[in-house]
Every structure is written in C-alpha cells, then in structure tokens.
Design brief:
Layout (H helix, E strand, L loop, with lengths): L9 E2 L10 H8 L12 H13 L4 E5 L2 H12 L5 E5 L3 H4 L4 H6 L2 E5 L10 H7 L16 E7 L12 H14 L2 E6 L2 H8 L3 H5 L4 E5 L10 E5 L1 H13 L8 H13 L4 H18 L13 E5 L5 H10 L2 E2 L1 E4 L2 E5 L6 H18 L1
Parallel strand pairs: 1-10, 3-4, 3-5, 5-6, 6-7
Antiparallel strand pairs: 2-8, 7-8, 9-12, 11-12
Helix pairs in contact: 1-11, 2-11, 3-10, 12-14, 13-14
Length: about 350
C-alpha cells in the first residue's frame, strides 16, 4: 500500500528541527521571569535545580547551546595547554568548530577503537593511550591529560548508547589516574529511555555533564551543564565571558520544564519509528543498515558506491529530507514532529531511493 503524502516534507535531517507544541508555547507565555545575569530568574533557577537533581549533581547552569555548554564544561576540567581525550568521531572535536582550542586553549587527542558506532571501550583506550601518560602532570616533555570526553548517545555513531559497564570501567581507570570525565549527554534522555538506566547513574560517572533540551525533548533553545556548586559558580563567569549571559531566559526555561514533564517517555516512539525505517531500508538494501544496531532515534545509512549527497537529493525530490554525514553515509533522525504517517512515507521513499541508486 502506498503511503499518502501529507503535502509537507517529512523532515528527518535532525531532532533539532522540532517546533514548540501549543502547550509548550502557553507555558512560555505564563513563565515568571527575572534577569539571569543577576541570577534572579526563578523559572530558570528551577530548571537548573531540577536537571542537576536528575543527574545526581549539586548544581546546574543553563546555556543557549549544547556546544557552549560542552566548551565550558570541558574548560572547567582542562586548563589551557592541557589535553582532552575523545574518540575520533566525537561531537566535541568534530562538530563544535574547534571552539575548545580556539576559545579555551585546550589541546586534544583522539583514539579510534575500531568500533564504527563510537562506543567507548576502555580496555582499547588504555592500549591506545598508556595509563602512565594519562596523568595531570606528564613532565616537561609530554602534554598533560586532564580529562576524557564521553558522548552518550553517540551522534555520528548512529545514536548508539554507551554500555554502562564500559562507562564504569572508564570512570574507574580515569579516577585512578587523576583524570576527570566530561559527559556530552546531548541525547542522554534517549539513552535513559532506551535502557531504563536512571539519569543519575549516568550523571554520577562524570565530573561535568551537559544535556540538551532542544533535540528530542522539543524545546526551542537550551542545554544545562551540571557539576559541583564550586564548578558551576566558575561556569557562570565563563558563560558570560563566552557571550552566553542571558536576561529574562525563564521564557526558554519554561519550555524546557514543559519538555521534562511531557516529552521524555515519548522518546520511545521516536526509537520505534527509527527502527521501522531501518528495517525497511535493510529489506530493500541489506548492506545499508543493520536494524539491530539502531538503538535510539538515529539511523545511519551506508549508501554503498553512491555519494550520500545523491541519496539526499533523490529523497528530497520525493518529499523526504535527510542529511549527509560523509561521502557514503546518510543520517535519518526521528523526532517529536515525525508521526506514524510520516514514518510510512519514509519507509516507502528511502528504501526505494537506496535500491534505485545502488
């Protein structure tokens, strides 16, 4: 049966494309606000306390973007000239425009453990980076390693969830070496819903952690960085220095609070729809994706011998928007504004495009 087009594009480029629901807009209108540079916005303060509590930390700070939250979170742990370790496809190093080095003076080093989905394997990390080098003071010749960044879920790895036992091993190893951990938890909500792992279990495995409210949860703007009270006090200064001081931001915080109340559990619907799309693409072109590896709301398609841009263009002509991650990779992301009818269209168009271009 052919899916009926809705008359609007099915936009699967990113979960950042979500629009505020009517109820969220109403919450924004009714928000009590104040000047947050003076720390006087009550709605924003409530959001920061709530997210910090959810992640098992003492305090939180609201940011206009996840990239800024990550840059400040890392800078709290890594002094200029020190080193941040992250995997080779991490968002903090690949997709934040070099901000950590340009603004924070942070050096970086990457590892690749040969796992395409970006999940960390501490035993392989130790093989790539000997523990005797993972120390805050490496002597007069070697850069000092100050922190390791972990991304959960992993964007460029296809929305994969970092296995909890591996995260625990990583935390144990870094703690023994005197090295801190930053969690880029932009889509940590997805990991929580997919696995049932409490958010504070994830949060307590990191010294600083950022979470995004404007992706799967559907708020228009906002991320929150959590850490100790002492670190968050310093983060407030860094945020202002980076240009992130905001005034009556409680309007945005109200949207985020609404998202926490109403949009977390429903992430399971996004995961189900992403798996449906993966299964349809696999049925048409088995080598394009393994549905069993689709854990959350992101599907990464291997376009074989055809450039990913060709698949993106062909799908767009038929009303389905996806994005190219590289020469032979296409990303599909389900979200709040994609329903079952939209998924039906994607399950018809994308497999057909892949089959025709293979």
């Amino acid at each position: 049966m052919t899916a009926e087009p809705s008359g609007r594009p099915v936009d699967l480029r990113s979960d950042t494309l979500t629009r505020p629901t009517r109820a969220m807009r109403e919450a924004m209108v009714e928000a009590e606000v104040g000047d947050d540079v003076y720390a006087e916005d009550p709605t924003l303060a409530a959001l920061e306390r709530r997210v910090a509590n959810l992640l098992g930390h003492e305090a939180g700070l609201f940011f206009p973007s996840g990239s800024m939250a990550n840059m400040v979170g890392v800078r709290l742990l890594v002094e200029p000239g020190q080193e941040l370790l992250a995997d080779i496809t991490s968002h903090v190093l690949r997709a934040e425009l070099g901000g950590h080095s340009a603004l924070g003076g942070v050096s970086s080093r990457t590892w690749s453990d040969g796992v395409a989905d970006g999940t960390n394997r501490p035993r392989r990390l130790e093989a790539a980076v000997p523990l005797q080098l993972m120390a805050p003071d490496a002597g007069p010749y070697l850069v000092s390693t100050a922190a390791v960044a972990v991304e959960n879920t992993h964007n460029f790895g296809g929305g994969t969830v970092q296995p909890l036992p591996e995260l625990e091993k990583l935390r144990e190893g870094t703690a023994a070496a005197g090295v801190a951990v930053h969690l880029d938890g932009a889509r940590l909500w997805n990991a929580h819903v997919a696995t049932g792992t409490p958010l504070d279990v994830y949060g307590r495995l990191a010294d600083t952690a950022s979470v995004c409210l404007s992706k799967g949860l559907g708020a228009p703007v906002g991320s929150v960085l959590v850490a100790s009270e002492e670190r968050i006090a310093r983060a407030r200064v860094l945020r202002k220095r980076y240009g992130g001081g905001m005034r009556q931001a409680g309007v945005l915080a109200a949207a985020c609070l609404h998202a926490l109340d109403h949009h977390v559990d429903r992430l399971a619907e996004d995961h189900r729809r992403a798996r449906r799309i993966a299964e349809a693409c696999h049925a048409a072109v088995p080598g394009s994706v393994d549905p069993h590896e689709v854990e959350t709301n992101i599907v990464v398609l291997d376009t074989g011998d055809r450039p990913g841009a060709d698949v993106v263009a062909a799908a767009a002509e038929r009303g389905v928007r996806v994005s190219s991650l590289g020469p032979r990779m296409v990303r599909v992301v389900t979200h709040l504004d994609v329903d079952d009818a939209d998924t039906d269209v994607a399950c018809e168009v994308l497999p057909d495009v892949l089959a025709r271009l293979s």
